[in-house]
Structures are given as C-alpha cells and as structure tokens.
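Contributing new records

If you add data, match the layout below exactly. Sequence lines come first and carry their own label; structure lines follow with theirs. Keep one chain per record. Anything else will be rejected by the validation script.
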Amino acid sequence: MYSEKVMDHFTNPRNVGEIENADGVGQVGNPKCGDIMKMYLKIENNVIVDAKFKTFGCGAAVATSSMATELVKGKTVEEALKITNQAVAEALDGLPPIKMHCSNLAEEAIKAAIDDYRAKNGLLDENAEKNACGRRCDDIHHMHEEE
C-alpha cells in the first residue's frame, strides 16, 4: 500500500520539532480526517535554512510533513512556494489516492509558513488575504491557527 520512502519517513521522520523564534510558522488541518500540520521555517537572506514540523495525524501525514521539510531546506522562498502536493507525493514515490489529502496539507503548510514570514516582514501582496494565508482560504480542508 505505501512505498518504502513513505514508510521510511513515517518511521524515521526528519526535522521533527519546533524552531524557537521561527521566521514563519504555518498550521493547517483537515477537520474531516483530523490531521493537523504545523511547520516552522528559519529564513536567512530569502533562503530557507531550516524547517521543522509537528504533525498530529496518520502515517501519511507524518511522512508528507517530513518530506516537505526536506524539500524546502536550501530553497529560496520563491522556489519553496512552487512545491506542489504532487511534488511531495512524487518525492515519496507516490501515495494511495485516499491519502493524497496529506500531500495537500504539506503544500498548504509550506505556503502558510511563508505567508506568516511575509506578513511579519511586511512583504505580503496588497491583494493577499488579511489572515496571512493568502491562498485557498475558502478550502474546507484548510484551517487557520486561531480557529
């Protein structure tokens, strides 16, 4: 059912934990399945130098969180914003269709953390949402930290 990479990232997740004084923090969740992902980013000179996560959820949610942190490290903010749920799933050698929502959460957590960073630094687009999300805020699978 799950690839070896998914099982590896679930049983040996990379980058678990928090970053004190993180430059960007994003939390997203799926109320339907109960998965909650929180991502912390340390950004220097527009490059993500560290990423950590805390996830409450199934094995696929943990694996996609772990892979997402691996994918963003060393990337510029703009490069990290281009990481899609499909890229996360492909980096894990695929996910069962019923678990693809976990890769959506990983993509959204990256974007939410970057939006938080941008909001804290006055870099949000004038057209962005007030809540530092700026993306898919009408998505029923997305929740904000304050919700």
